[in-house]
Design brief:
With 320 residues, this protein is of the alpha/beta class. 43% of the residues lie in helices and 19% in strands. It has 14 helices and 12 strands. It has helices spanning 18-27, 39-42, 87-97, 113-117, 128-141, 156-169, 191-200, 214-224, 233-237, 250-263, 268-282, 288-295, 299-305, 309-319; strands spanning 7-9, 31-33, 37-38, 45-50, 55-60, 66-70, 78-83, 103-108, 146-152, 173-180, 205-208, 228-231. The radius of gyration is 19 Å and the shape is globular. It binds flavin mononucleotide (FMN). Flavin mononucleotide is lined by residues 10-13, 15, 35-36, 81, 107, 109-110, 149, 177, 189, 208-211, 231-234, 236. Residues 10-13, 15, 35-36, 81, 107, 109-110, 149, 177, 189, 208-211, 231-234, 236 line the site of flavin mononucleotide (FMN).
Length: 320
């Protein structure tokens, strides 16, 4: 996969399922990351070709829950991101999914307690031997590109040292979220510390943090020298951020997202969460719309709420 000059949709738990990735790609995202999936969870899954939807599903044995859904249309741009703390488990997980995705990414940035306590996410940042073990095991055994996503360490020197060590494993690219583990999302991303990493490496760096408008893609690229740019919240709040012509109204994006969730039979919890993020940002969850979304029990209920009943019927009829 080519990592030069790409607009990248960041991994986002609950948000980054297939409908949202397809939406972002429609608006111009070149590379779309899936949400982080924990290796333990993925290893309970079997790969199922879903002829009805035209998707490939990774379905949890026993519960039947879809843990990861992808489709051939996104095969060349979707990145499977996993949470792991073990090379053998990471490899088994990657082997399950690698034929259906463009690349495998290891999350080394998640600061949440469930990740840290499991030795995953940002816990890896202080375990360079384990990082080496996980990345070299994957790179040696897989044909797809392997990458990872890190946060900044306490000092720019520490970040650069770790980035150099990661580069030596043979990863195809490195995504750098310009915040430290203790930083909150409202703290400004430190683009200058991403620039330090870019200057020290020869592999493509994907700069991430505080991109909220199309123009910011150019600004962060100029400030950091990064090969590509990754955006999370800016895309979550308006997926048309990837459009060079400017953003579309958020209500329009919301309706298109509902339609895509119907089309790909998305999990209702994930669909509701994404719509609630939009409402929280642009309006207020306490308003009637937010309350009505809360009451929806199925994606079809959401379709009804947003006047997409005919679309629901058309999708069903096209498949029967
Ligand atoms: C709702 C949400 C879910 C996220 N989930 C993940 C995830 O699964 N994996 C990951 O590496 N980062 C995750 N992140 C972090 C983002 O990928 C990104 O690094 C961070 O939000 C900074 O980018 P931004 O300033 O463009 O929002 C998440 C962020 C948000 C807002």
């Amino acid at each position: 996969m080519d990592y030069e000059n790409k607009l990248v949709l960041a991994p986002m738990v609950r948000v980054g399922a297939l409908p949202f990735r397809m939406l972002a790609a429609e608006y111009g995202a070149d590379i779309t990351y899936g949400e982080e999936i924990i290796d333990h969870k993925m290893l309970k899954c079997e790969r199922v070709v879903n002829d009805y939807l035209g998707t490939t599903d990774f379905v949890e044995k026993g519960t039947g829950g879809v843990v990861f859904r992808t489709c051939p249309e996104e095969r060349d741009r979707v990145v499977f991101q996993m949470g792991t703390s073990c090379a053998a488990r990471a490899l088994a997980t990657a082997q399950l999914v690698c034929k259906d995705v463009a690349a495998i990414d290891i999350n080394m940035g998640c600061p949440k307690s469930f990740s840290i306590s499991g030795g995953m996410g940002a816990a890896l940042l202080s375990k360079p031997e384990l990082i080496d073990d996980i990345l070299t095991t994957l790179i040696r055994n897989l044909d797809v590109p392997v990458t990872c996503k890190i946060r900044l360490l306490k000092s720019p020197q520490d970040t650069v040292e770790l980035a150099r060590r990661i580069e030596k494993t043979g990863v195809s690219a490195l995504a750098v979220h310009g915040r430290k583990v203790a930083d909150r999302p409202k703290d400004a991303a430190k683009w200058s510390e991403i620039a330090d990493v870019v200057a020290a490496l020869s592999i493509p760096v994907i700069a991430n943090g505080d991109v909220f408008d199309y123009e910011d893609f150019g600004r962060i690229k100029k400030a950091t020298g990064a090969a590509s740019v990754m955006v999370a919240r800016g895309a979550m709040w308006n997926a048309s951020i990837f459009c060079s012509k400017g953003k579309l109204p958020w209500e329009e994006i919301k309706r298109e997202y509902v339609r895509k969730s119907i089309l790909w039979d998305n999990d209702v919890k994930s669909t509701k969460q994404t719509i609630k993020e939009l409402i929280m940002h642009h309006s207020c969850l306490e308003f009637p719309e937010g309350k009505a979304v809360n009451k929806c029990e199925t994606v079809a209920d959401l379709g009804k709420l947003y006047g997409e009943e005919e679309y629901c019927i058309a999708v069903q009829e096209s498949r029967s």
